[in-house]
Amino acid sequence: MTPRITGAVALRVLTQLRRDHRTVAMLIVAPCMLMTLLWWLFLDQEQIFDQIGAPLLAVFPFIVMFLVTSVTTLGERKSGTLERLLAMPMGKVDFLVGYAIAFGVLAIVQSLFTATLALSFLGLDIEGSWLTLGLIAVLNSVVGTALGLFVSAFAETEFQAVQFMPLFVIPQILLCGLLVPTDQMPGFLEGASKILPLTYSVDAMQEVVSYQNWTTDLSADVVVVAAFAVAVLLLGAATLRRRSA
After folding, report:
1. pTM for the complete prediction?
2. Per residue in 179-204, pLDDT tens?
3. Strand, coil or helix: 10
4. d(C-alpha 169, C-alpha 175), whole Å
5. Distance (Å, rounded) from C-alpha 175 to C-alpha 182?
6. What is the pLDDT of residues 47-65, one digit of tens each?
7. CA gyration radius, the chain
8. CA–CA distance, 64 with 144 (Å, rounded to integer)
9. Best CA proximity match to 119, nearest among 175, 67, 68, 57
10. Is residue 244 within 8 Å of residue 77, measured between CB atoms?
11. Which of 40, 49, 160, 195 is deepest in the core (most CB within 10 A)?
């Protein structure tokens, strides 16, 4: 990996996204709208909003980044841009890490807007710091980005890319502990939840909600989520095709 080339890829993606106002709106406005809807839904049940609001600050970026990245990367392949880029002296890892950095920057902006809305205007109550909350949200968005890059290698159309969502995203939402605590699930489902990154993201957010200081369990969760991001990026590099289908 060459830092100069990786940075150039990230800058190109950011420049391209800056001109795509609909994508920017989806990345920034949609999570804010969803969080506001959640607050409205539990307007008279603040305790429930506090309990699930923080974990959803990790879930929303994961979903949005997965969708945007998988569709955007597939568009690069179909237009021939990906083939032309990889024909240059640039490795697959440069391309993938450049994309991850670009969407990571967007994730920081997204997390800033959503967390500010939730904590300042919607009254979400947490014990930990905003910085820790934002770090976990950004890490989770990077996992979503990496997973979107990975699945885009197996799709031929944008519709097919979206079809991967029921396979890679919805099971994680069901098993991450947001709906039912993982230790209360049937044995097989509890075991399955332990190999899904979203489970550790939700656990980390619940640590931030419950404890003011950084805990050992929080460190373990953050390390696992970061490891998932790196592993999926490497898988994406292994499956990324230099030629369009």
Report:
1. 0.82
2. 888 889 998 999 999 999 999 998 98
3. helix
4. 10
5. 7
6. 888 788 888 888 888 888 8
7. 18
8. 8
9. 57
10. yes
11. 49
